[in-house]
């Protein structure tokens, strides 16, 4: 049946090319989507005339008074508009194709815009792409699909790190998320299957309306709404396993005993005590995690109302023991038309439980697993708690039993998130609309940790049960009132004007409590025993006055201007308001008469310039405060001390960024081949920077926030798409590529560099560096050149007094040639940020089979492999890489195995305590992120049970091509500071997974 | 229907007007106090003074680094292979301006100075309080504590760095240039002088606070470091009411703190909490009421350092202090229940002769953990006696017999033969060098002593010590990179 229709259409199209006598008549037909489902509410217009119609619930339309040489356009949101010349036929059935990469209507700040009129830089991702890959958070859908957007995932339930167009600041680089007009901090409460589309706003002409919060770009999320037509029930599910297969190659018991003996510790008897077992600690901390996801939705729509209700359940066991994530999500989206008034609401609620990766002693689980002595058993029923750990330093230093850390007691973070809005929109006069919207983003988290008493046998013990709880509650209420006017005058002048007043109220409070229980391990709740309690609260308010004017002449020449005046309470009264603006121009070249016969269906040149701001600094920085967090024992009592909390700065103001963007969009062969190319060049100034104060002035924290730093970022983005159909075979390919390069152009006056890095890791604490003329937080360390083989080599290279260097030590490059190795010899040995990121998405369908493959990657970044630091540095005795068996062996001051690449064991501290090139690796990778094969049942024989049923099998991260020796090049940042980017200290690797899925439409 | 629309429009209009109000942008921090309204009563004044003590406890000072840095430089310590990389350079004088230990030391002292200055900046406010709220005597006492602590921190700094930037107010964020060390000593003397006149006596003050006697002892020490022997002796003579502990080891246990010999202590008490100890390099904030000394030095703990042959061999036969200062194979511990064996002194580089006993918890425990509550007795009466001996011996017209008398008080307790009262000035000096070395071993005084006596080059020969350079630490990079008035080129000679 369907096939016949398609042939009929093709036949009709061919006929339509013939010249036919003009004659007024009535045509009718059905408009369907690519899978043959009728489209209710599709628009049918006669070009150059006001004659139009729309389809009914069954996708049928009737259009009167048409001539055979009229051109009719068929359009529907989200599908490619089709234009057909009427010709002789009276029945025209149309199948509208899916667009490869571009929606015809794009969601922009405070509204939508036709793709052809967009003058800024916007990438969009549609629901089809979002649900093509089984993702647990919405941000992941952007990875590799939206050019210039980088996404790095962490452990289950953690928020991914998202950067748009690289870094524009060394402070908060998180983009702003806007869900149905609600400004939110992240998308963790959102079920990806509820999302209709995501628009990434990348340049000031698209983001300036969000003023002081738009600095890092804006991600607009639109949730699915009810569609016109009879009620439709959808169910989808998937389930599968995820696993981490890669391991570090560490020594087994026999190797370890030999190694320890070489280092002076004979542990043979010790190992025998435990029966000479061999525990693979890495196998103990990784597990095959089950993941399952269920979604049920019901969508319904009439002429004057639409609604959609959905419920989802996700449960994901992590690939590391003790980790997991579970989420229940509910959403109700409604809208109603009452004459010229539209009232609606979009409300989503989610409950989640996260079991984060647990750590101890400032070391990640994986680091413990690497360093644990292999002869130790996991369990020992004689010990309190039932685990065996190192009894003394002899059993290896640093490590604790990772299974005990992960499994004894628990840490559970329960979250509640409500994101919703209620709006009313009234058409006061033709084209003149007033809209009022109240939005709410509310969340609570309860972070509860319970660790019963334990004693692993000596070195690690806790004589009491400890209970800790942190409860956080935050809310953001946004009240928007807007007036918009849209008109066309003198036929070809299109004008849109928008004015908005917005007010944002944010509140935050938390309570931190902890206690101990010396009596029992049975109770996991807080008590008054050795308890501590504190709370904090904060409030910030913003006011914004927004205006935008869009004008175009005949869709050819486009002009847009927007501005926002923003007031924020985070800043002192001296600089409380900031102004942001943008101007953009566009030229639809393809619409020019001289292009009529060209292959270009789209050719548009556009450019924009504008400013945005960043207010993401700590609250109340402008006012001086006292801190009472000092304790000193007097007469055996903890006496409280109070002193100034830091150096306030009443002159703080926004960070500001000037964006310049130029882009070219093109579509060839009736949009079969589409693409765009962009270049951006952004200049950030007044970046809030914690200016290091001289330590001697004695300011706690040692810094003062000042608007002093500057940087610049520039890059290219390319998006390409192609789709083709040959009979039953359709296929498409899209590719996205983004580059970005940044450079610090100024820090504070007189400050040329600042160091940073992960805290608490001796040797790499000061490894990341900000320096004028260099990329943000590059790796700063020594270059290396082999190993000193004998004393003569040491003496030749170094001046007397550098006595710590001996044969078998690493030869650090003496860059300035002064024969002294010190910080003057450190240099740029790597950049944690990639030169470019890319993605390639292939889809194909043959009859009822569908196939998709998605490849993503990054190139040109370095990773500081801190695991290697644990695996190869040999500072103390603990388990390590088997490579240490081939370390340099020094006998009588001469290295006896010159081919060794590792220095001597337990050598001079500089071998390991100094971050050097030795730990730097190429972080580039290409990853088959997803590959899916599906089969769809849509035969009439099933029609009484369901409209459509699809089975699929899908694999994630199955193939990764990389030179990186760690477990996963796709690592998350260590903590919230940028200064830790690209440093892999045993991070949660992205697991491989295979899942089976089912989608049913009833 | 129409009515509804009008009502909606009117309501929305009202909301729109109400929504913009500039006063919404004026918010005050609900979490913290404001300095403008502080110093209203005794508790507030006292709390500002308390904060200035907290820096003594930081890892930059007595929680971790100071004992390593000074005991290593004096070669009282030798390092086992596991000694961390940042502490090794203090054994061989290879540290430079990037040393984190030097940075922490510098920072925490200056943070303490700023806290003391915060109290002194508000002297007028404190003095303006009615005497019924706070008596003049108590006002003076609190101000004197601030003066004492400011001088204490400067006196930790000046022997390490020489010329220093001087701050007498906490209100600036602009770095000062280095002033001659003579000016620093002038400030130290004036502060200790004010403190000695206004602090309470040990008998009436709370345990842990600075006292009149401590102020006199440190005033004397600061004068002695400038070789102002007569003035120093006068100050020391005001340190009254103290006797030597009959049991030397009482100076190094938890239960016998604030005993008859103790003049000033750095307080630790793990029962008050240790939650923030790893975060407290310099600021002194949070609950961090323990020191790592026990774990770091203990031969049953991390055993990062061990007593050098040089220090072990300094003791005369029969010196009772040896057994109270060091553990050796055969030593009893854990209340006498356990005995150390040779294997208890093993390292991956072989067996060691001894481990430190001062400030270890083994006297009552079988092991060390990350927390020790034992206070550092940073000023003991025996130290004062030996400094008095030095002043008496060195001053013009000094009576050597009187000096020897002071030394013999210390030797008497140690059960070693008393010195003949006929010794010459040179012989007294030699005796003092020995006596301070053994009496105060592992107490961070020997390096200062050999520097001020001018004998470091010979005492530290072969260690990497470079005369003309190693006497002082470099000003840390952190300071020279952010202080417009101290450039890297202004650093100490050789750095």
UniProtKB/TrEMBL annotation, chain A:
Which SUPFAM superfamilies does the UniProt entry name for this protein? Carboxypeptidase regulatory domain-like, Porins
Indicate how the chain sits in the lipid bilayer: Multi-pass membrane protein
Give the range the annotation lists for the signal sequence: 1-22
Q: Any idea where this protein resides?
A: Cell outer membrane
Q: What is the lineage of its organism?
A: Bacteria, Pseudomonadati, Bacteroidota, Flavobacteriia, Flavobacteriales
Which keywords label this protein? Cell outer membrane, Coiled coil, Membrane, Signal, Transmembrane, Transmembrane beta strand, Transport
Species annotation:
Flavobacterium saccharophilum
Q: Which residues form a coiled coil?
A: 516-543
GO cellular component labels: cell outer membrane
Which Pfam families does the UniProt entry name for this protein?
CarbopepD_reg_2 (PF13715), Plug (PF07715)
Q: What is this protein called?
A: TonB-linked outer membrane protein, SusC/RagA family
Q: Which domain of life is it from?
A: Bacteria
Q: Which InterPro entries match?
A: Beta-barrel_TonB_sf, CarboxyPept-like_regulatory, Plug_dom, Plug_dom_sf, TonB-dep_OMP_SusC/RagA, TonB-dep_OMP_SusC/RagA_CS, TonB-dep_rcpt-like
UniProt similarity note:
Belongs to the TonB-dependent receptor family.
According to the entry, every stretch annotated as the TonB-dependent receptor plug domain falls at 116-218
From TrEMBL, chain B:
Q: Pfam families given for it?
A: SusD-like_3, SusD_RagB
- Locate the region Disordered: 473-495
Q: Specify the RagB/SusD domain's residue ranges.
A: 260-460
Which residues fall in a coiled-coil region?
none
Q: CDD domains, alphabetically? A: SusD
Signal sequence annotation: 1-22
Which segments show compositional bias classed as Polar residues?
Answer: 478-495
* SusD-like N-terminal domain span: 35-222
Q: Which UniProt keywords apply?
A: Cell outer membrane, Membrane, Signal
CC terms in the record's Gene Ontology section? cell outer membrane
Question: Where does it live in the cell?
Answer: Cell outer membrane
Q: Which family does it belong to?
A: Belongs to the SusD family.
Give the protein name, as stated in the record.
Starch-binding associating with outer membrane
């Amino acid at each position: 049946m369907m096939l016949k229709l398609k042939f009929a259409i093709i036949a009709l199209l061919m006929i339509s090319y013939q010249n036919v006598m003009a004659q007024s008549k009535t045509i009718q037909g059905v408009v369907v989507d690519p899978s043959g489902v009728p489209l209710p509410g599709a628009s049918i217009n006669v070009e150059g005339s006001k004659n139009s119609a729309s389809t009914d619930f069954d996708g049928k339309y009737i259009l009167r008074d048409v001539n055979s040489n009229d051109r009719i356009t068929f359009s529907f949101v989200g599908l490619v508009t089709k234009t057909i010349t009427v010709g002789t036929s009276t029945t025209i059935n149309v199948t509208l194709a899916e667009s490869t990469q571009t929606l015809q209507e794009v969601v922009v700040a405070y509204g939508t815009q036709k793709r052809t009129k967009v003058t800024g830089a916007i990438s969009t991702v549609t629901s089809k792409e979002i649900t093509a890959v089984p993702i647990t958070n919405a941000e992941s859908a952007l990875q590799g699909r939206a050019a210039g957007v980088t996404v790095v995932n962490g452990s289950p339930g953690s928020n991914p790190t998202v950067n748009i167009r690289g870094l524009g600041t060394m402070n908060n680089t998180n983009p702003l998320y806007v869900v149905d007009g609600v400004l939110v901090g992240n998308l963790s409460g959102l079920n990806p299957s509820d999302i209709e589309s995501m628009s990434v706003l990348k340049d000031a002409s698209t983001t300036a309306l969000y003023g002081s919060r738009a600095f890092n770009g804006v991600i607009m999320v639109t949730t699915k709404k009810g569609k016109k037509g009879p009620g439709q029930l959808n169910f989808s599910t998937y389930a599968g396993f995820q696993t981490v297969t890669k391991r570090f190659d560490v020594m087994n018991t026999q190797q370890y005993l030999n190694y320890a003996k070489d280092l002076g510790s004979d542990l043979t008897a010790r190992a025998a005590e435990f029966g000479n077992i061999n525990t693979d600690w890495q196998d103990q901390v990784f597990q095959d995690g089950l993941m399952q996801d269920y979604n049920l939705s019901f969508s319904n729509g009439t002429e004057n109302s639409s609604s959609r209700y959905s419920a989802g359940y996700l449960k994901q066991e992590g690939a590391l023991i003790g980790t997991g994530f579970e989420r229940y999500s509910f959403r109700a989206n409604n809208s109603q038309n009452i004459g010229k008034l539209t009232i609606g609401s979009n409300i989503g609620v989610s409950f989640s439980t996260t079991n984060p990766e647990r750590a101890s002693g400032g070391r990640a689980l994986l680091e413990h697993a690497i360093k644990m002595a292999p002869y130790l058993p996991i369990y020992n029923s004689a010990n309190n708690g039932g685990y065996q750990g190192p009894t003394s330093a002899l059993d290896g230093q640093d490590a604790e039993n990772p299974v005990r850390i992960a499994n004894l007691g628990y840490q559970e973070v329960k979250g509640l998130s409500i994101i919703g809005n209620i709006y009313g929109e009234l058409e006061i006069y033709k084209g003149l609309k007033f809209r009022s919207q109240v939005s709410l983003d509310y969340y609570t988290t309860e972070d509860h940790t319970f660790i019963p008493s334990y004693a692993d046998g000596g070195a690690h013990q806790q004589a009491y049960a400890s209970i800790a709880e942190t409860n956080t509650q935050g809310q953001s209420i946004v009240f928007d009132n807007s007036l918009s006017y849209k008109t066309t005058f003198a036929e070809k002048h299109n004008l849109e004007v928008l004015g908005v007043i917005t007010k944002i109220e944010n509140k935050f409070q938390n309570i931190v409590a902890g206690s101990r229980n010396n009596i029992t391990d049975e109770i996991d709740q807080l008590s008054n025993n050795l308890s501590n309690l504190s709370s904090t609260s904060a409030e910030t308010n913003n006011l914004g006055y927004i205006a935008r004017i869009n004008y175009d002449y005949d869709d050819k020449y486009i002009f847009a201007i927007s501005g926002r005046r923003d007031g924020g309470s985070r800043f002192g009264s001296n600089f409380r308001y900031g102004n942001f603006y943008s101007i953009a121009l566009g030229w639809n070249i393809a619409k020019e008469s001289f292009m009529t016969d060209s292959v270009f269906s789209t050719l548009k040149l556009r450019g924009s310039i504008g400013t945005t701001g960043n207010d993401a600094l700590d609250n109340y920085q402008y006012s001086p405060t006292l801190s009472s967090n000092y304790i000193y024992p007097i007469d055996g009592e903890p006496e409280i001390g109070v002193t100034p909390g830091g150096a306030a700065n009443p002159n703080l103001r926004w960070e500001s960024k000037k964006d310049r963007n130029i882009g070219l969009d093109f579509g060839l062969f009736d949009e079969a081949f589409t693409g765009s190319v962009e270049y951006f060049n952004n200049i950030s100034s007044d970046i809030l920077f914690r200016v290091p104060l001289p330590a001697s002035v004695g300011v706690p924290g040692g810094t003062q926030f000042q608007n002093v730093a500057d940087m610049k970022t520039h890059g290219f983005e390319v998006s390409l798409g192609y789709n083709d159909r040959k009979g039953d075979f359709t296929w498409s390919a899209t590719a996205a590529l983004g580059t970005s390069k940044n450079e610090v152009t100024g820090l504070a006056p007189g400050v040329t560099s600042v160091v940073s890095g992960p805290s608490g890791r001796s040797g790499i604490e000061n490894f990341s560096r900000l320096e004028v003329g260099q990329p943000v937080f590059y790796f700063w360390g020594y270059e290396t050149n082999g190993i000193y083989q004998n004393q003569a080599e040491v003496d030749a290279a170094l001046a007397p007094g550098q006595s710590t260097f001996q044969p078998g030590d690493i030869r650090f490059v003496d860059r300035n040639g002064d024969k002294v190795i010190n910080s003057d010899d450190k240099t740029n040995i790597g950049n944690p940020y990639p030169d470019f990121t890319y993605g390639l998405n292939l889809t194909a369908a043959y009859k009822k089979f569908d196939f998709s493959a998605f490849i993503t990657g990054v190139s040109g970044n370095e990773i500081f492999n801190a695991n290697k630091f644990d695996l190869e540095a040999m500072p103390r005795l603990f388990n390590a890489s088997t490579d240490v068996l081939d370390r340099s062996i020094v006998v009588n001051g001469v290295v006896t195995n010159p081919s060794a690449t590792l220095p001597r064991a337990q050598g001079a501290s500089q071998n390991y305590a100094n971050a050097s090139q030795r730990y730097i690796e190429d972080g580039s990778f290409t990853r088959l992120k997803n590959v899916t094969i599906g089969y769809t049942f849509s035969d009439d024989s099933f029609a009484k049970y369901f409209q459509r049923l699809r089975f699929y099998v899908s694999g994630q991260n199955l193939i990764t091509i990389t030179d990186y020796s760690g477990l996963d090049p796709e690592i998350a940042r260590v903590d919230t500071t940028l200064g830790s980017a690209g440093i892999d200290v045993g991070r949660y690797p992205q697991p491989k997974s295979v899942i089976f899925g089912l989608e049913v439409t009833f | 229907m129409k009515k509804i629309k009008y009502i909606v429009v009117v309501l929305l209009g009202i909301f729109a007007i109400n929504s913009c109000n500039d006063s919404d942008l004026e918010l005050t921090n609900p979490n913290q106090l404001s300095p403008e309204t502080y110093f209203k009563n005794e508790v507030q004044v006292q709390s500002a003074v308390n904060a200035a003590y907290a820096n003594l406890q930081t890892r930059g000072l007595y929680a971790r680094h100071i004992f390593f840095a000074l005991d290593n430089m004096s070669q009282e310590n030798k390092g086992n292979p596991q000694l961390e990389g940042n502490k090794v350079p203090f054994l061989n004088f290879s540290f430079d301006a990037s040393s984190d230990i030097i940075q922490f030391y510098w920072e925490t002292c200056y943070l303490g100075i700023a806290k003391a200055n915060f109290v002194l900046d508000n002297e007028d406010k404190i003095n303006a309080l009615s005497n019924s709220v706070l008596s003049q005597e108590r006002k003076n006492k609190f101000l004197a504590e601030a003066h004492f602590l400011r001088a204490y921190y400067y006196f930790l700094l000046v022997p390490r760095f020489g010329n220093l930037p001087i701050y007498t107010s906490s209100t600036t964020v602009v770095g000062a240039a280095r002033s001659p060390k003579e000016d620093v000593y002038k400030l130290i003397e004036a502060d200790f002088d004010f403190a000695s006149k206004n602090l309470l006596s040990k008998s009436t003050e709370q345990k842990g606070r600075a006292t009149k006697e401590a102020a006199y002892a440190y005033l004397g020490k600061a004068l002695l470091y400038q070789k102002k022997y007569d003035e120093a002796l006068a100050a020391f003579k005001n340190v009254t009411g103290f006797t030597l502990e009959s049991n030397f080891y009482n100076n190094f246990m938890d239960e016998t703190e604030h005993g008859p010999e103790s003049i000033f202590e750095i307080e630790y008490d793990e029962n008050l909490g240790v939650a923030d100890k790893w975060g407290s390099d310099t600021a002194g904030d949070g609950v961090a009421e323990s020191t790592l000394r026990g774990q770091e030095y203990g031969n049953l703990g991390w055993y990062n350092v061990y007593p050098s042959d040089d220090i072990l061999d300094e003791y005369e036969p029969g010196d009772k202090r040896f057994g109270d200062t060091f553990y050796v194979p055969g030593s009893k511990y854990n209340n006498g229940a356990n005995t150390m064996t040779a294997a208890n002194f093993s390292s991956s580089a072989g067996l060691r002769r001894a481990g430190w006993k001062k400030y270890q918890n083994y006297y009552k425990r079988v092991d060390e953990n990350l927390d020790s509550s034992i206070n550092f007795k940073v000023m003991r009466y025996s130290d004062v006696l030996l400094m008095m001996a030095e002043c008496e011996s060195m001053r013009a017209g000094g009576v050597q017999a009187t000096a020897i008398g002071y030394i013999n008080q210390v030797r008497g307790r140690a059960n070693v033969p008393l010195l003949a009262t006929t010794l010459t000035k040179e012989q007294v000096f030699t005796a003092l060098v020995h006596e301070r070395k053994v009496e105060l071993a592992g107490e961070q005084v020997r390096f200062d002593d050999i520097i001020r006596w001018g004998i470091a080059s010979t005492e530290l020969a072969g260690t990497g010590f470079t005369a003309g350079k190693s006497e002082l630490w470099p000003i840390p990079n952190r300071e020279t990179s952010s202080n417009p008035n101290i450039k890297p080129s202004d650093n100490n000679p050789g750095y």
